[in-house]
Amino acid sequence: MSLTWVNSYGGPLVLVPKGLVSSWRGVTGSSTGSRKNDYERACEVMDWAGIVPVFAASALVLANERTPTTWWPNARGGFLVCWHCAEDEESVVSHLRNGMPPIFEATGLTIQIPPEGALLFDSAEPGSDIRGDRLEIKPVPGVVKVETLMWEPDDLTSLLLYRLEPQ
């Protein structure tokens, strides 16, 4: 199984509801009228995850240190998987297939996901002109809670997981 991985140019990745992607301005401006551009606001997130306003809604910021990130769906929603270290993609997939621990850290964060899903991309890019990696994800629509876990299933593998499930 081959997964699609999203990389950033150095800043955080952002997950934006599909209907609002073109409102995200990246380094070119602010979607909220703030003096700081959208990228600067995303960079202010100091935890593994944070929420920033985008137009009249919210985007999820993944402050994950330039690690390749993919989507692993399941029946309840799914996981954003950040590859910190692993021998290869096959070992990452094998660990994910064998199941993840049930205990995740609650972040207190939620994001509204529309039926058409959301787009994951580099927060520096304007949503109207994404030139780098991007990944469409479709968790269960509605209000989705965000939980995190730094998971080390063996001595060679470290993955940061973001579980996105209905609230």
Structure notes:
By secondary structure, the protein is mainly beta. It has one domain (13-166). It is 9% helix and 44% strand. It has 2 helices and 10 strands, in the order βαββββαβββββ. The chain has helices at 38-43, 89-97, and strands at residues 13-17, 49-54, 57-62, 69-74, 77-85, 105-113, 118-122, 134-137, 142-154, 157-166. It has a 5-stranded antiparallel β-sheet with strand order 2-3-1-7-8. The chain has a 5-stranded antiparallel β-sheet with strand order 4-5-10-9-6, with helices on one face. β4 and β5 form a beta hairpin. The chain is globular. The two termini are 30 Å apart.
Distance between the termini: 30 Å
Poorly predicted residue ranges: none
What characterizes the major β-sheet?
A: 5 strands, antiparallel
Mean pLDDT: 94
In terms of DSSP E residues, the strand content is 35-45%
Estimated helix fraction: under 10%
Large-scale geometry: globular
What's the short version?
With 167 residues, the chain is mainly β. It is 9% helix and 44% strand.
Topology:
Elements: E1 13-17, H1 38-43, E2 49-54, E3 57-62, E4 69-74, E5 77-85, H2 89-97, E6 105-113, E7 118-122, E8 134-137, E9 142-154, E10 157-166
Antiparallel strand pairs: 1-3, 1-7, 2-3, 4-5, 5-10, 6-9, 7-8, 9-10
